[in-house]
Amino acid sequence: MMTAEQIVAANKASIQTLFGLSEKAFAGVEKLVELNMAAAKAAMADNQDHVHALMSVKDVQELMALQAGYLQPLSEKAVSFSRHMYEIASSTGSEFTKAVEEKAAETQKTVTNLVDSAVKNAPAGSETAVAMVKSAIAASQSAIESVQKAVKQATEAAESNLHAMAASTVAPATKPASRKR
Fold this sequence. Notes:
By secondary structure, the protein is mostly helical. Helix content is 89%, strand content 0%. It has three helices and no strands. The chain starts with a helix and ends in a 7-residue tail after the last helix. Mean pLDDT is 82; it is low at 177-181.
């Protein structure tokens, strides 16, 4: 059984973890806001430059060339923006995952210690019940590890797909458009 000091210490540790995760969440949101502000400023500057360039167009060919030159880098900028957003979300998510895994490991250790303590104080003839409890705990730990492994694999697959998608989107955008005559 847990003592009052152990309960207080566990609550303090939980609160400290909560505040730490809150700080990480706010830092992630702050990075996203900064990214959005930078993207908005860059878009405004690009649009302003483009409008000024449009005002000085003298013929249709110059207009078409100007438009092609303006539209081509947009996909690269969109992919770059998406990549930065993903990196921010991924790093913030990985910090949360790490904290959850650490807490899960602590919890598993605590539960194991409690079960071991209960086993030592168990009355004679309760070996079957103790074995069932230990088996259930082992099964739950195995399930948790399987879920964590699956989440990591899914995250790695999503990241790989994102990089492949970004590469396939940027590659065609950097090639000059062929003109039909």
